[in-house]
Amino acid sequence: MAIRPREEFAVTEENIEVSKNSEKVEVEEKEFRKADLLNRFLAKFIDFLIIGALGAAIKAPVGSMAALTYALIADGFFDGRSLGKKMIGLKVVNLKTGMPCNFKDSILRNIPIGLIALFVFFIPILGLILFFTVGLVVLLFESYLIYTDDGGIRIGDIFADTQVVDQK
C-alpha cells in the first residue's frame, strides 16, 4: 500500500471556488396544475375514515396516537400519496424540488388537520366542543382556500411549500 503525498489532498483556491459556486445553486419553483376538487375531498374523506378507524379500533391512548400519527405523516407514504390520495389518483409534490412529498413535508402540511385530531382524541369532552367550534372553522377555511386559490393551496401547503396534483 503506497502512501500518497499530501499535495494531492491540499485545499487550493480553485477547489474553494468550485465549492462556493456549487453552493449557490438555485432551484426555481415548479408550476403544477390544480388537482380536481372532488377528488381532493374524496381522498381526504377516505383519510378521515382511516383516522377515525385507527382511533376507534385500537384501545386508547395507543389508538389516538396512531390516528394522530397517520394524520400527520400520511402524505409521506407511497411517493407523496396518503392511502386516500393513492386510491383516488392524487399526489403531493414539493413546489421547490418537484419531488413527491416526504414525511417532513407531510407533517408540516398536515399540522392544521393534526391539531383537529388532537382535539377529538386527547381532550375528552372539551375536545368535541373545540372540534365543532375551532376545528370546523379551520376545515372550512382550508376548504375555502383550496377552492379559491389558483393552485388549490391551503394553509398546510403554505407551511410545507407543497401542492396536491393529479398523479398522471
Task: Outline the structure in words.
- With 168 residues, the chain is mainly α.
- The chain has one domain (33-166).
- Helices cover 60% and strands 6% of the residues.
- It has eight helices and two strands; from the N terminus they run H-H-H-H-E-H-H-H-H-E.
- The chain has helices at residues 13-23, 37-57, 62-73, 83-88, 103-109, 111-122, 124-148, 155-160, and strands at 90-94, 162-166.
- The protein has a two-stranded antiparallel sheet.
- Helix 3 packs antiparallel against helix 6 (111-122) and helix 6 (111-122) packs antiparallel against helix 7.
- The longest helix has 25 residues, at 124-148.
- The radius of gyration is 22 Å and the shape is globular.
- The chain starts with 12 loop residues before the first helix and ends with a strand.
* DSSP strand tally: 2
Note the beta-strand portion.
5-15%
The end-to-end distance, rounded to whole angstroms, is: 54 Å
Poorly predicted residue ranges: 3-27
The gross shape turns out to be globular
Task: Please report the number of helical segments.
Answer: 8
Number of domains: 1
Q: Which structural class do you get from the secondary structure elements?
A: mainly alpha
Query: In which order are the strands of the major sheet placed?
Result: 1-2
From the alpha-carbon coordinates, what is the Rg to the nearest angstrom? 22 Å
Order of helices and strands: HHHHEHHHHE
Average residue pLDDT: 81
Please estimate the helix content: 55-70%
